[in-house]
Design goal:
D-Maltodextrin-Binding Protein, domain 2; single chain; about 40% helix; 2 domains; alpha/beta; six-stranded mixed sheet; globular; five-stranded mixed sheet
Length: about 325
């Protein structure tokens, strides 16, 4: 039997790069610095996470660097549109979030890409729990008491958010739907403005991430009612989870690594392994918790893809029934 070799194929002029590129890409990646596109500006939670990961990238990636590149705007979809147009060669990755990579097409009328088909999920990195907060003047201190008070005064309470379609808006809408309540939404332009409005008493309720509301809660300028994820969080010991009153309630701000669609399976696995090793480090877990009250998840690409599909299914009815559009 004739032995077919790469040299023979090349000599015959019938070899193609695709025949050999996947294995080479998997084994040698990365051969040069990688760009990590961050969909929000410097200094925020997602930027902090990205730089935490980037600082340890070279330890598991042939000594190469992960260069953080901020591309903020339009709820993360400017970054999403950019990454969706790149080659799936592992040289451009994205720190994902729900807006840019899952529900953007529900929030924006003219999104130039489909978040559910434009990306290759690599790994789910972290969850950042939210906290249902109230102004100190609100007499309710538990979820049951909030439900009773709001039921007695339909549209009598207001809640602040960091903008239409922002996580702080969607989390509260999910709570209101599950509890059968109505409140008046007062959107602001940022998380800082949202929390300030709550502290001033311009709104009675808010639903920021734990890390955004933690200092105000500890200083007594706002009070924590419940945590958005089951089991609560060590950052706010003694504060119950919403799931204790509304079984199955489980939502968080999440981030992971995405790549452009069409990436070869071996390269997907190689990149997943690199980031899995980074977030498995105790110091990374501690830093994520200390800076953001977040928890490391870690996942296979398949698990991350399934998670994103579930997120889309959770938010689809909330957004459509509420006629929510991003600003």
């Amino acid at each position: 039997m004739m032995r077919i070799t790469r040299r023979g194929l090349l000599a015959a002029g019938i070899a193609t790069p695709a025949l050999f590129t996947p294995a080479l890409a998997q084994s040698s990646w990365p051969e040069r610095p990688i760009r990590l596109i961050v969909p929000f500006g410097a200094g925020g939670a997602i930027d902090t996470l990205s730089r935490t990961v980037a600082a340890r990238f070279g330890e598991h990636a042939n000594g190469q660097t992960l260069v953080v590149e901020n591309r903020p705007g339009a709820g993360g979809t400017i970054a999403g549109a950019f990454v969706a147009q790149q080659r799936p060669d592992g040289l451009t990755l994205m720190m994902s979030d729900v807006g840019a990579n899952a529900i953007g097409r529900l929030l924006y009328n003219s999104l130039p890409y489909d978040p559910m088909t434009a990306f290759t999920p690599i790994i789910h990195l972290v969850n950042l729990p939210g906290v249902l907060m109230a102004h100190p003047s609100v007499t309710a201190n538990t979820v049951s008491e909030v439900i009773a008070a709001a039921s007695a005064r339909p549209d009598g309470f207001t809640f602040s958010s960091a903008g239409n379609g922002n996580g702080s808006h969607l989390f509260m809408e999910l709570f209101l739907k599950r509890a059968g309540l109505k409140m008046v939404h007062v959107p602001y332009r940022s998380g800082a403005e949202m929390v300030t409005a709550l502290i001033r008493g311009d709104a009675q309720f808010g639903f920021p991430t734990v890390s955004s509301g933690l200092n105000m809660i500890r200083e007594g300028r706002a009070k924590a009612i419940a945590i958005s994820t089951p089991g609560g969080t060590p950052a706010l010991p003694g504060i119950a989870a919403l799931a204790d009153t509304l079984p199955g309630f489980n939502t968080a701000v999440w981030h992971g690594i995405m790549a452009p669609a069409g990436m070869e399976a071996g390269l997907v696995q190689r990149i997943n392994e690199v980031f899995a090793k980074i977030v498995a480090k105790d110091e990374v877990r501690e830093q994520v918790f200390r800076a953001q009250a977040g928890s490391i998840v870690g996942s296979t690409p398949e698990q991350f893809a399934a998670f994103i599909r579930r997120e889309y299914e959770v938010w689809l009815p909330i957004i459509r029934e509420g006629n929510i559009r991003a600003e």
